Amino acid sequence: MRNLFSTSFLSPSAYLSILFLVLGFQNPALAQDKSNRTWLAGDHHIHSRYSVGWNREVDPPTPIKGGDAIYPTPMNALMAKYYGLSWIVTTDHGGPNHSKVNLEMAYPELLYSRKVVPEVIQFYGMEFDTPGADHSSLIIPHSHDESIHLHSIESQFNKREPHPSDPSWDTEPRMLEALAFMNKMTTKPVVIANHPSRSASDLGVYGKDDPAELRDWNDTAPDIAVGMAGAPGHQAAALNPDRTFRERPRGGYGQFPTMGGFDQMTAKLGGFWDSMLGEGRRWWITANSDSHVNWLEGGSDFWPGEYSKTYVFAQKNHDDIIDGIRNGRVFVTLGDLISELYVRVEGGHHTADIGGAIHIARGEDVTVTIRFKDPDTLNSWKQNPEVTRVDLIMGELRGPVTNRNSDSNPTTQVIARFTESDWTVNGAYREITYTISELGKDSYIRIRGTNSNELEPQEDEKGESPWDELWFYSNPIFIDIE
To answer: CA-CA distance, 160 to 306, in Å (whole number)?
Structure first.
């Protein structure tokens, strides 16, 4: 017998009635903060029941609603609200003629969801079945014709769209063609590579997404292809009551595992991410749930916001949130380890924050100020994790690589490690100040923190609880020498 949150046959209205009663929601009034930017938690990779199955006994195949992911969009939004999210993106993946499913079925339900859960900013998008690669979150800017914009992309470029299938749709040049098409749109979408190393066979032995390919994306459309999921979804398999799930790898990374819950392209110090940053690329990281079916209902997923959060520094509206994602005003955290993170670089009379850049004179001192909130509250696992260490990481900006498949930046290192004795407590915040003396080379800094004792994130073992070791990461700040 399915439990209260099962989703096979009830209408969205029925689900809402149940959830309002169980979770204690009142019919909310729209409350958007139009003043200063704040840290807003969200999730850019969430599937609804319009990530369908397919009846392939007929030609063309017909969609089976709830055949892959099972939840109505309003339920995803309500659970996102329950777990503290301010914004989400609905990202159903495609299939034969799925662009019609998105346009005629998923989009109307999103419009309905926006009305019943107005506190959560809801974007239209999809999990793009990426030509020549794995999957990507495709986030469409909010507009009156957003549904037409997505349809134009999915119907022409999603590699699983044609029937019969057409291998010519699944090539790297076709992805570049898709990005060039998006680049001409009046409102440009955002593309984030999802679980980029899920198909990697070993450390540095990549699969469907390789370094040269991601560089090509970023070169073709630097305002659209802006980054990758640092921490993938599907991290709750070890919690599933079914023993067969407990030995499944975190994130579905069946060949080479995640590292502290993060993809190797992010987690390896001096690895691919640092190679991209060392070129000066504005290449950001995010985190997401990849929610299909919750772990309590037989799946391997957390609800949106239940475990991972992507925080964007923005006003609470569509335009500023997508601007924050596009421009790297983002940090990510697992398990609600922190809820706010401010990093500022000061040199001379200039300052820059997460996602920004500062210009200083050669040989000038640079002061890095880190301020984070370690909330004194229980997370969804009924734990109150505490940050035990914060790492300040720095690497040199060395310009374009000669090898497009480069995945290393040997200049990147942890230049300082801070523990409780190194920070001051100011109310709910912890504050750290560190001076980099006489900086002489173009550089970048980024921040990482954990509740564990591991100096570097280690490979995650099958069956280990995702709650035992938590990390957070900031996006970088660039320091240019004049």
So the answer is: 30
